[in-house]
Amino acid sequence: MRLTFRDAIASLLVAAIAVPYIGYLVNGEMPFIKDPRGMSATGLVLGAIAFLVLRTGNAADRVGTGENIAAVVAGVLGLAALVFAETAAAEVLLAVFMGSILVVYAFEVVDHAGLVHAHAGARPH
Fold first, then answer.
1. DSSP character at residue 88
2. Are 52 and 82 in contact (CB under 8 A)?
3. Hey, which residues does 30 pair with through a beta bridge?
4. Residue 117: inside a domain, yes or no?
5. N or C: lower Cβ tally within 10 Å for the chain?
6. Helix (H) or strand (E) holding 20
């Protein structure tokens, strides 16, 4: 298992999303985060930075393609949570978005730890 300094930075960024979200769930708001729109925006900005930190220097293999697709799905969910923040679906969209951030993060860390192997041009046997 070989995790890097970038993994540690990304972990801090994901924690900077998770901790306010948990506080938001418990209290209904956090400092600087008063509603689902604020929490969505926080997740989008910090999540995008965390993803860029994690993806920098990664190989362009099938796993990387899967990670990119997962990140795009998370981004779309984040934008949907932001756009529909004033609707009845806001809390559900926000919860799904927060879960998708964790999925992308876990996908990246598992790849960096060397637990998944796939190379460009590799064929399944």
1. T
2. no
3. 33
4. no
5. C
6. helix 5-27
